[in-house]
Amino acid sequence: MKYVYPFIRQYLHSQAGILLGPEKDYLIESRLHGLLKKHSLKDLEQLVCVLESTPEGDIAAGVISSLTTHETSWFRDQRPFDRLRTEVLPQLRQQQRRQISVWSAACSTGQEIYSIAMLLRDEGMYSPMWQVSLYASDICKTALAQAERGVYNHFEIERGLAQTHRQRYFEMTPAGWRISSAVRQSVRFEAVNLTRLPDSPERFDIIFCRNVLIYFDPNTQRKVLQNLHDKLVPGGFLFLGAAESTAGLCDGFQYVGTGSGLYVRSKSLG
Ligand SMILES: C[S@@+](CC[C@H](N)C(=O)[O-])C[C@H]1O[C@@H](n2cnc3c(N)ncnc32)[C@H](O)[C@@H]1O
Questions:
Q1: CA-to-CA distance for 146 and 150, rounded, in angstroms?
Q2: Residue with the nearest Cα to atom 3 of ligand 1?
């Protein structure tokens, strides 16, 4: 039993870049309880045997889902969304652009990308003048499935959503509050591990990668930031979480003003 916790910590680190110290072993125990039950596994030792033989199957995905934190809310921290509206969009408009692409790179259950989608609609970006492309990804397939469904319970809907937005963009269904199909269908969802980004030529004007770097070790943070840098157009915007920064990790970004985690891709990396 002694090797079980170090194995699971090491597994989580190698698969998702997430650092969990031994002081969090109680979390491993409590968060994996449901998964053991679901797959009729006797204990964590049996789970470790499964991970050793099938490190990328359904159960493995369940371990990642259970051990990642999916905390999120509508317009979380508010200020980044204010800056998107009052600084970033006006700059893009000034450039006489006709296209805007946004990526929510650890979207959890979807509140972040749908907040962006509502804001862009409020700002009149869904007009024949603009082509808007919204992309959202997360490592956790369970969170992503809820994001794609776009259905939220009372507790979830209450967290940060204004009445006006609820009235304008949601309808009550027997399953819960469902975001309008126009908003839902405007977003492309995909399971993506930030530590293993697939090669693709796609580049974004704006990336939201908030409240996920804090779970990574510095080497993983460095690698992820360099990859995000690569995925932004020159002059593109990166929003990080309030406790996150590029300082000492990636010098291809310039911090813009105080608070709210806004960076601009300032130069190419050497
Ligand atoms: C705390 S939530 C943040 C959600 C949202 N960005 C926000 O700020 O409200 C962190 C999310 O990061 C995801 N995550 C953790 N490790 C990841 C990885 N290696 N690649 C992609 N997503 C990851 C988790 O599944 C979780 O949904």
A1: 6
A2: 211
